[in-house]
Structure formats: C-alpha cells, structure tokens
Amino acid sequence: MTERLHIIGGGMAGSEAAWQAAQAGIPVTIHEMRPQVETFAHRTGNLAEMVCSNSFRSDDSEQNAVGLLHWEMRQAGGLIMQMADKHRLPAGGALAVDRDPFSEDVTAALRAHPLVEVEDGEISELPSDGHWIIATGPLTSGALAEAIRAETGAESLAFFDAIAPIVYAESIDMDIAWMQSRYDKGETEEEQKAYLNCPMTKDEYEAFIDALLAADKTEFHEGETAGYFDGCLPIEVMAERGRETLRHGPMKPVGLTNAHKPDEKAWAVVQLRRDNKLGTLYNIVGFQTKMKYGAQTEVFKMIPGLQDASFARLGGIHRNTFINSPTLLDDQMRLKSRPNIRFAGQITGVEGYVESAAMGLLAGRLAVAEMTGKTLPPVPAETAMGALVTHITGGAEAKTFQPMNVNFGLFPPVAGLKAGRRGRKDRYKAYTDRAKELWTGWLAV
Q: What functional role does this protein have (predicted)?
C-alpha cells in the first residue's frame, strides 16, 4: 500500500482513526498542531489528552448506551478503550481514567507503530487531493475553521464547553466529607466508595445558590453567543433556571447516607470523583463553570468539607465549533463537496470522549475500505455506533442540529416492547442484545 491516510488532529478521534487504519496496514500521518500551536485548554503535546472530565461515563453494556459503545469499540480493537481499561480508576460503575498515563500510553503506542508518523504543525487549508480525515475537535484552529467555513458556505455552529475544577485530596475535610458511591453501586468496596461526598443543609444550599448567582462570570467576546450543550451546562446557568435545579441535578442527595451523621438527611450533596490513580486529585462532578477564578475559590469554599480546599485546576470555558453534519456529510462521513475529506470526532456534532473516539474509529475503517477497494455495508442503525453516525449524517434535523451524546433515543425501537419507565430495563437489554449481535456481524464483513 503506497497511498497514505492523513489525519488532522491527534485527539480522541484522530488517535483512534490512525490506530484503526495502521492496524489494517494503511500508512498514516497524524498532523497535530500542538505543542507548536497551543490551546488554553491543553497542557501537553500528547495525543488524546483529556482536557475536561476524566470520565468515560457508564461502562454498563446491558443497560446504558455509552456502555454499549464501550463494548462495541472494544470488539473493534479500539486503542482508546484499550488504554482506558489499562488506566482505569474506581468510579462506582463508571469508567474513569488516570488522564496523564492514559494519554502518554496512547501517544507511545501510535509513535511506536511502524505505519504511523506524527508531524507537528498546523494545517490551515483544506487539502485538494489524497485521503484525509479532519478530527480537530472543539478547538479547531482559526485558520482551518475559516477554510472549512469558506468551503461549506455555512456558518459554524458553536457552544461553550465548561471545565470542572480539580481539588487536592489532602485539602478536603474528611471529618465532614465521606466516601460512597450513590446507592453503594459497584461490585467491590473500592467501587462502592468511589465518590467523595460533601453534604449541605437547606440554609447552606440557599446561601450557595445566592453566591453562585451573584458571582462574577467570564465575559464573552463581541459576536459570541452562549449556546450551551445541555449535557455540559455551567452550574451557574443551571442555577439561573431555578433554585432547585442543582439539587435535582449534580447536587441531588438521593442514594447517599452521611457516614458521620447517618440519621441526618442532607438537603443537597456535592460529589467529587477521583481524578488520578494516586488519589491525590478529585474533580467536582458536574461543576463546569464560567465564573472568574477569584469567584470560584470563594464560592466553592462555601461547600462543607471544601472550606480549606486547594485547587489544582480551576474551571474554565472554551468555544466549541462543529459543522452541520446532516447537511454537509454523506453516509460515509465524507464532505459532499470534497469527498477526499472525511470528518470525525466532536467537530461532527457528537459530544463526549467516547462518542468522539467512536466516530474516529468508524472514519478510520471507512477510509481503509475506500483505499483498499472494498465496500462496507452501512453500520446497522440499531448499534450504538450506527445510531450515532446515522444521527449526524441525516438522522438529525439540520435546522436545529446540536451536539449529541449516544443515547437509546437514537436507536430504532425494538418491535413488541412497550415504551415507559416500567419496561425500561427489559427494553434497554433488548436494545443492547440486538446491537451486540449486529455489530459483531458488521465487524465480520
């Protein structure tokens, strides 16, 4: 094979696409602008660096759509899942990852592969020939974004991702906080105590909401609009939607018993999840924010147990650009106006590490098939992978297209099963059983 696949962007999607192609015998060049061109969110030049949460979310492949997507990626020999499993942290049924060793090992595996080259430097124009995948993610460089806009004739859509703060474990007051996963979920004691919990009384919660609403927030630049993705709302935006919103969202107290005061029911609970294998860092779950740094330290230290907290990283906010994929991409993830270019990852309008990596996996396999003269059947829409790619390449309404996590709402219904909460467990199991059978069959083609 003399033809080479070029991939712009070495994040989750680009790394996975490169791995899939190289494992199939296709020479690959990854073009990564970091560290020559930095972003405010990245700290290193490593591939697949995790810049927001360290969670791949639920790993339940029978009752959860993202857990099913994990399963499908593992079956396809995915590098991202391989390294996530290697660097797994206790998280009560979720798949949390020790972020630095994870990205270091992804980088090492790709750089060691005999068919992979990594070239540092920015690509600022759309290539006119050759086989390319654009997987530049939410922080696509300004020059390349402008080239994409010029080619597509469409305005890029944008929302703002907010980054949750990270606290040093040693600074948390364990006379107030306690370790417990919600409903004691997990098969081992370590999993059942994967989260650190900080309780609030009603008065403490009300004072916290008041401070949150009054805090100084990051100002947007002229011409920017804050069109947030609902799965990653800043906590102050949630609070603005109603004083009880946080208490029924990331601060819900259900399924938790205060180990220090078992007879007292908390009005609200702030949860922190381990952020590294050593257990020295914890991120505040669901606490993405656009508050200014000074305001963050003041407001977050109002949380019982965090009154003396030291922060390894404060929250931040960044713009995320994605294309209107239902209009611009064909069912092979190719740009209709330039079919030598595929798009993959978050820039296509999927949301989350796992979904981004999954679209990289699929784009890599589709590119391999095209370059080797093979024809792959469409990915079954009943699979997690197929549900996502169907959504972004035509299943979504183009006029209202917004980033989407994988969820069972994207799956075709299973005949004979009723909707509603009562039958949900059986319905989800039927979805995942069907998907596993169809995905296994598609991989065997």
A: Catalyzes the folate-dependent formation of 5-methyl-uridine at position 54 (M-5-U54) in all tRNAs.
Q: 14 a known binding residue?
A: yes
At residue 435 the predicted structure's pLDDT band, cuts being 50, 70 and 90, is very high
Per-residue model confidence as pLDDT tens digits over 124-170? 999 999 999 999 987 788 889 889 989 988 665 666 666 789 999 99
DSSP 404: B
pLDDT tens, 376-400? 999 999 999 999 999 999 888 887 7
The CATH number linked to 144 is 3.50.50.60
Contact 16, 80 (CB under 8 A): yes
Cβ proximity of 88 and 96 under 8 Å: yes
Q: Convert 360-384 to b/e letters by CB count within 10 Å (16 or more is b).
A: bbbbbbbbbebbeeeeeeebbbbbb
Percent of the chain with pLDDT over 90: 73
Give me the CATH number covering residue 278.
Answer: 2.40.30
Q: In Å, how far are 4, 194, 255 from 59, measured between CA atoms?
A: 35, 14, 19
Mean pLDDT of 244-267: 96
Helix (H) or strand (E) holding 294: helix 293-300
Could you give the angle at the alpha carbon of 302 between the alpha carbons of 231 and 239, nearest 5°?
A: 35
135 and 55 both lie in a single domain: yes
**Cα(75)–Cα(70) distance, integer angstroms:** 9
Is 130 annotated in a binding site? The answer is no
Q: If pLDDT is split at 50, 70 and 90, which confidence band does 223 have?
A: very low
In sequence order, the β-bridge partners of residue 88 are: 97
Please tell me whether 11 is known to bind a ligand: yes
**Are β-strands 94-97 and 88-89 bridged in parallel, bridged antiparallel, or unpaired?**
antiparallel
214-225 average pLDDT score: 70
Residue ranges of alpha helices (H) inside 5-98 are 12-23, 65-75, 79-86
Please choose, from the candidates 66, 13, 137, the residue with its C-alpha nearest in 3D space to the C-alpha of residue 387: 66
10 is in an annotated binding site: yes
Q: Which domain holds residue 240?
A: 162-319
Q: Find out whether 385 is annotated in a ligand binding site.
A: no
- Closest among 311, 344, 350 to 13, alpha carbons compared: 344
The answer to whether 9 is annotated as binding is yes
**Same-domain pairing of 391 and 424:** yes
- Which amino acid type is present at position 88? R
